[in-house]
Amino acid sequence: MAEGEGAVEGEKKKGGAKKLIIKIVPLLLIALVIAKMTVLKPPPPTPAQAAAKAAAAKLALDTKCALANSMTPPKAPAHAPGAAATETPTTAKPGTLGPTLDLDSKTMNLDGSHFLKIGVSLQLPVGSVPDTVKITENWGSIASQLVIDTFSGRSFAELSNDGVRERLQHEIGDEVCQRTDGKVDTVYFIDFVMQ
Q1: For the stretch 108-133, what's the b/e string if a residue is b when 16 or more beta carbons lie within 10 angstroms of its beta carbon?
Q2: Confidence class of residue 86 from pLDDT cuts 50, 70 and 90?
Q3: Cα dihedral: 119, 125, 130, 136 (round 10)
């Protein structure tokens, strides 16, 4: 009987060790999660770090939009001594273009008795579905309003100059890019009729 009692006692010890492991493992996991959320969590950025990050993001957006619209990209600001330098891209990265979204043409009065009928197309991000974007985003509204604000009341003679039209197209494209946080790269004039 002594052997049988020893075997039962050994079984109880093994079972006790398993129960102890089963109790300790969840406690260790909980302790790790709490440590990650409190002790191991990086400190929040200082106001200077947050401002620098926002400035870098703004510079990157300004550069992307300027390059997409054949404009001169902004210069990176001079860095204070000891400040971390951020690189500014100077050329657009090659890539594929997404689909375009053609907006309804707008007709507006020019200076005098002339009028302008203008249609624009938006260069959408890769993978966009134009019919879905037209319904879910306000990018077309932004572009349409900028076109109306830019061209209303201008003179027929001024808009007869191809250089002026091209400059205005780039400016509108850059502004739409800015207002859509870089999602719409540029704007194309697909219809431009003056009478």
Answers
A1: bebeeeeebebbbbbbbeeebebeeb
A2: very low
A3: -100
Q: Which of 98, 117, 101 is nearest to 109 (CA)?
A: 117
E strands, 67-152, are 100-102, 106-109, 115-123
The listed range with the strongest mean pLDDT (30-44, 58-72, 83-97) is 58-72
- Let me know if domain 100-194 sits in CATH 1.20.1740.10: no
Residue 115 and residue 108 in contact, taking contact as beta carbons nearer than 8 Å: yes
Q: pLDDT tens for residues 124-180?
A: 988 889 999 989 999 999 999 999 999 988 999 999 999 999 999 999 999 999 999
**Structural contact between residues 176 and 59, judged by C-beta atoms closer than 8 angstroms:** no
* Interval 170-182: pLDDT, tens: 999 999 999 999 9
Q: Which amino acid is at 50?
A: A
The CA distance from 145 to 166, in Å, is 18
**What is residue 42's three-state secondary structure?**
coil
Alpha-carbon 90 to chain mean position? 19
**Token code pair at residue 176:** 């739409």
